[in-house]
Structure prediction request, 152 residues.
Amino acid sequence: MLQMLELRTVGAPLAGPLGEFFERLRAAGDERQFHPHPLDRAEADRRTRYDGRDLYYVLMDEARVIGYGMLRGWDEGYDIPSLGIAVHPDERGKGLSRLIMLFLHAAAKRRGAGTVRLTVNADNATALRLYREIGYTLRDMGGGRLEGIIRL
Ligand SMILES: CC(C)(COP(=O)(O)OP(=O)(O)OC[C@H]1O[C@@H](n2cnc3c(N)ncnc32)[C@H](O)[C@@H]1OP(=O)(O)O)[C@@H](O)C(=O)NCCC(=O)NCCS
Prediction:
């Protein structure tokens, strides 16, 4: 099967595929674990028209969005960006999350960041294992949330 993997900055032509991806995450019940913004087509449209300092990327297989990663916080004036990541439910367990995370770390470093942070639900075992393996230090924030920090 032909496979064309590509990491791309979220932009105008991707509104449809990104909307489909968000709806698929919602249908899989991922909204509780991943809620940086609403997961619907209107939000996909907003993301593709976004023009600020924060960074949004998609991993594409041909015309399909199979992964999504972001670094946010610069727009709000923070020096340490917050990382967010989601992989298409049919594409999990293939190591794609690592690829996206290392890419995001490189993008953050190029922007001058020395550290990246993230927050995660304490019951998101898959994400916790991934973040620990990559080298994040996790601390309990209370309320069922953990904060992860990594020095780049
Ligand atoms: C967390 C997430 C990004 C991991 O993505 P991924 O690309 O599946 O990551 P990996 O390929 O490293 O697999 C992680 C683990 O998933 C499990 N897994 C394996 N096959 C799987 C499958 N078909 N479906 C789901 N999970 C699977 C394995 O335990 C694997 O760990 P291991 O390979 O180290 O033993 C992904 O599960 C996801 O998008 N979850 C919903 C959104 C979310 O929780 N984001 C993080 C919020 S803080």
User: Anything to note?
Assistant: The mean pLDDT is 96. Residues 114 and 152 are 5 Å apart (CA to CA).
